[in-house]
Amino acid sequence: MWWKKYTAVMKTSFKETLAYRFDALTASLFSVMRIWLAWLLWKAIYGEKEIIAGYTFPMMLTYYLLITFLSRLARSEGIVWETAEEVRSGTFNKYIVRPVSHFGYALARSAGKGSFSLLTDSLAFLLWILIFRNSFVPPVGWPEGLQAAGFAALGLFTTLQIHYLTALISFKTVDIAGPWFFIKNFMDFLTGAFIPLVLLPGVLQKAVSLTPFYYILYYPASLYLGQETEKTGTALAVILFWNGVFWGLRRLQYRRMLRFYEGVGV
Amino acid sequence: MKGTIRRYLRLTGMLMKMKISRDMVYSLNFWIAFVVDLLLFLFLLLSFTFVYRYTDSINGWTLPQIIVFMGTFTIVDGLGMGTWFFGIISLPEKIRTGALDMRITKPVDTQFLVSAESFNPGSFLGPVAGAFIVRYGMKAGNFALTPEKLAGYLLLVLMMYLLMYSLSLLVMTCAFFFVKIDALIQAEESAVEFAFRIPGTAFRGAAKFVFMVLIPYGLIATVPTQFLTAGLNWGQGAAVTAITLFFVTATRLFFRFGLSRYSSAGG
Questions:
Q1: Which residue among A43, A52, A185 sits closest to B40, beta carbon to beta carbon?
Q2: Is B126 within 8 Å of B75 (Cβ atoms)?
Q3: Are A210 and A216 in contact (CB under 8 A)?
Q4: Helix, strand, or coil here: A206?
Q5: Is residue B160 a contact partner of residue B195, using CB atoms and an 8 Å limit?
Q6: Does some domain include residue A266?
Q7: A110, A72 in Cβ contact below 8 A?
Q8: Structural domains in chain A (count)
Q9: Looking at residue B170, what is its pLDDT?
């Protein structure tokens, strides 16, 4: 049962987050604040307008609700800081000498933390939907809702792979903060966390649709809202292609980076 | 008083010199901090440019005003990141581990030492870039820049720098009373993020009271921008001064109170 060790990591990570449940719950409530602020900004932008780029005001708010919710579930960011710290202190040795895949560990850890976020955030977001039900739009249809959920899961895995590749940089540099924020800023813009990608000029939008970022947050949200511009088959092919690339790159980089690792810390 | 100011200025200079020589070892970090800030600005500018394809103004503010707004935030944020940010962000950790003990025993003001001990020279390039951005926004919007306006703007930037410092330290000081304040820090980060992304003019009603008075992150880049591009009346100026003074004083008192409760090693 090779997966048992990973389910154990998942359970431990869940319990670890549970130990700080007040903290996690407050964080969930504060993430709802982001939607409120999006509400304020977009209310001012919409003014008297009914529709912007095919989005009504409730659709725009639902978009921000969905991407905030998905961003909160992607709890793989922690692996960047943890790996950097372990490499710096030399405690990364434990993954090398034990029969455990470090990526598997990262995946289980993110899944454990993400499951807890799923519980607390669902509560917080449900509360928001109840209070602002006039500004919430249900999925355009159940098939689209399910497809959106599928793409969201793929998006979470893609995010983990990108975070993991970022974490591997810590074998080469002492301070991971710079490279991390560099990548994070790129991701925030290209995934549609700043503004829905439909607002981008056509050529730019087409260019972004060739990258994996397009399918991490924006595509699942636009599927849900019935505003998708790419066919699901094409979207699936693009995101699977990129995941394949990241998979190969990750394995190659991991082996390469271990050669730099001296195991004594900095 | 004069002697104290001179002493603290000398101390600031020494701390700065030490940090610069330490950072020179990792010269790449120096540039990365700058590039990261500039990249964020670029993406926000692009986002607003794309949004303005669908609207002429956001509650009366045009795109050039938004550019001045973002440039102003880049200046205030860069000054903060360069001086106090990295010092006070680690305050909860220092309290939790007892590392604050060493700072308390030093013959200088603890709040000063904690705030000024981690200069980040790379961040000082941010305000330089911010100044260029403001200049670009002013030109794009055909806003006149007189010496009086410039002086008033710089004074307001200084006030907003102090306000931002006070608000951040107020949150970090909570670590004297609670073991874990991650959620509060996260909320503070979100507030800063939104102070950068949402112009204060977008706030209406209760939100205006919350973000302009109660937790006035909405003032930080909005007030100097409003002064430079549209003007502030005396009433608004007095209100902003009162709010800044209140938070600077409250933070000082709260920090001293927190310090009096500090019981070392595990806080």
A1: A185
A2: yes
A3: no
A4: helix
A5: no
A6: no
A7: no
A8: 1
A9: 94
A36 part of a folded domain? yes
| pLDDT confidence bin for B267, thresholds 50/70/90 | very low
Could you identify the residue written with the tokens 């030093």? B106
Residue A265 lies in a domain: no
Interface test with B, best of A18, A25, A32, A40 (most B CBs within 10 A): A40
Which residues contact residue B74 at a Cβ distance below 8 angstroms, ignoring those fewer than 6 apart?
B37, B41, B126, B127, B129, B130, B133
Residues of A with CB under 8 A from a CB of B: 20, 22-24, 26-27, 30-31, 33-34, 36-37, 40-41, 43-45, 47, 49, 52-53, 173-175, 178-179, 181-182, 185-186, 188-189, 194-195, 199-201
- For residue B13, the 8-state DSSP code is H
Both structure tokens of B175: 């670590």
* Lookup: tokens for B150: 């410039």
pLDDT for B265 equals 60
* Closest in A44, A186, A189 to B58, CB measured: A44
B190 closest CB neighbour out of A33, A186, A199: A33
Q: Which two tokens stand for residue B57?
A: 């103004």
Tokens of B15: 């701390």
Q: Which domain holds residue A112?
A: 4-260
Which pLDDT value is given to residue B204?
81
Compute the nearest-CA separation of B205 from chain A (Å): 10
CB contacts < 8 A, A to B, total 90
Instruction: Identify the residue among A195, A205, A218 best suited for mutation to test binding to B, counting B beta carbons within 10 A and taking the highest.
Output: A195
